[in-house]
Structures are given as C-alpha cells and as structure tokens.
Design goal:
Elements: E1 7-14, H1 17-30, E2 36-40, H2 47-59, E3 74-79, E4 82-88, H3 95-100, H4 103-109, E5 111-115, E6 128-135, E7 144-145, E8 162-169, H5 172-179
Parallel strand pairs: 1-7, 2-5, 2-6, 4-5
Antiparallel strand pairs: 1-8, 3-4, 6-8
Length: about 180
C-alpha cells in the first residue's frame, strides 16, 4: 500500500478539446519507457483525444494518424524515446484477457497509455499517472485553469468545461509537483 506522500493529485479545468490536447502534449514531455498512463472517464469524455495528442507529441508528428484501439485493443507507435503502446480495454471482461495482450511485458520497455484500465489495475507498476476526465463540477477556485488556446485552427468537438484530474504515483509525485505546482 502506498502512503499519501507517494501520491499527488492536481485538478485542471479545460474548456475544449484544444486545451485538452495542449495539456496532453505537456504530459507527454514527462513520459519515458516504463511509464504507464491510465485514462478514465465516461464514454465520449475525451480519453482518446488526450491519448492521441500525447502520442503525437511523443512521436513529434502533429499529423500522425492515431487510430482508436477500441477494436484492435492495442496500437503501437515508434518514437525517439522508444515504443508507445495505446490500449483500449473497454471490450475486455477478464484480467486474463489483459495478460494475453502482453501488456505486462510492455511495462518494462514502453510508454503505455491505457483507456478503460479497470481490469489492468492490479498489474500496474509503481510509476504511473492516472488521468481522470469528467464534467466540471468543481468551484472555479478548486482547479487550475488553462488559457484560451487553439490547436492548428481546429475547433473543439469535445464537450466544454472538463475537469482533468492528474494523479501521480512513484516518480510522478515530484514531476507533477514541479510541472504543475499547487
């Protein structure tokens, strides 16, 4: 069991998909092989948009085609830092199905992003980030706001006013404290 000093959480309010993508690009700078990022939230809340922006930033190609892994379950990408796994476990029903994907091995050498991670939670390594995206239900004073930004001139397709909770474990306690602060 981890102590509270081994966990840090920050809440950030984003107004649209463009702001979500900017935050995901910032998070991408923190990642290295062996790191796991879980993405949680209801259907359509922005998990894949966050993953897509994060992967594009790590690969260094803002136009990279990043398909949702909903049916393939896992998509892999090559980046300068190494291999990136993008997983979607929504359709799985048992932990044994997660193991069959080889995801546990990828924790040793790849950056792994997992949407719908519930079945993988017992398998996750110490160094991980949890990204929880939800409709904003906090008072403005409780969250950090992103500035108004437009990414590549594209308008948002994601519903506005989302709260993104970033919870870090292991080495991410110091990373989040340094990068986001209080």
């Amino acid at each position: 069991m981890q102590s509270m000093s081994d966990i840090i959480e920050r809440d950030i309010l984003v107004k649209n998909e463009a702001e979500t993508c900017i935050l995901a690009s910032e998070v991408a700078r923190w990642l290295r092989p062996g790191d796991v990022v879980t993405l949680q939230g209801t259907l359509g809340v922005g998990k894949t948009s966050f993953s897509r922006a994060c992967i594009r930033a790590m690969v260094g190609d803002k136009d990279l085609e990043v398909a949702s892994p909903t049916f393939a379950l896992v998509q892999t990408y090559e980046a300068e830092i190494g291999e990136i796994w993008h997983c979607d476990l929504y359709r799985l029903e048992q932990e044994s199905e997660v193991l069959e994907l080889g995801i546990e091995d990828a924790f040793d050498y790849a950056v792994v992003l997992i949407e719908w991670p519930e079945l993988s939670l017992p398998l996750l390594p110490k160094n991980k980030l949890e990204i929880i995206i939800s409709s904003n239900d906090l008072a403005e004073s409780d969250v950090r706001h992103r500035g108004n930004h437009v990414v590549d001139g594209q308008e948002s397709v994601m519903p506005s006013d989302r709260k993104i909770s970033i919870r870090g474990y292991g080495r991410f306690v110091n990373v989040i404290d340094k990068e986001i602060g209080v």
